[in-house]
Amino acid sequence: MPSFSGIEVTAQVDVDFEVFCGTCGAGLCNVSDTRESRNRRMPQVTVEACEKCMENAKDEGREEAEAEYEQQLSELRKELAEATAACHA
Ligand SMILES: [Zn+2]
After folding, report:
1. Which residues pair with 32 in a beta bridge?
2. I want to staple 28 with a disulfide (CB 3.0 to 4.6 A). Which of 10, 19, 55, 67 is the partner?
3. Structural domain boundaries of the chain?
């Protein structure tokens, strides 16, 4: 039987996929989009930062800042008490 070998076949497929936050597991499909790179024609996915994680990070930052502020405040109070005591000695 006559035959061809090594015939290249290109197939086009549509791919549906889901996107989740790797940190908290929240679904991110609504804030994800697809595009193609201009130069390399590579399929790309853009995802907005997870809102839940951003909010958590903000809270963590606020708590850290508050703890640091309390620490500095108590140090200043101590210094003030010492200075006052030295003044009245
Ligand atoms: Zn998240």
Report:
1. 47
2. 19
3. 29-88
Q: How far, in Å, is the centroid of ligand 1 from the Cα of 22?
A: 7
For residue 88, pLDDT over 90 is answered with no
CA of 61 to the centre of ligand 1 (A): 16
Ligand 1 centroid to Cα of residue 65, in Å, is: 22
**DSSP type of residue 82:** H
Q: Are 32 and 17 in contact (CB under 8 A)?
A: no
For strands 32-36 and 43-47, give the pairing: antiparallel
CA–CA distance, 49 with 28 (Å, rounded to integer): 9
**What's the confidence (pLDDT) of residue 82?**
93
pLDDT in tens, 25-68: 999 999 999 999 988 889 999 999 999 999 999 999 999 999 99
Amino acid code (one letter) for 8? E
- 43 forms beta bridges with 36
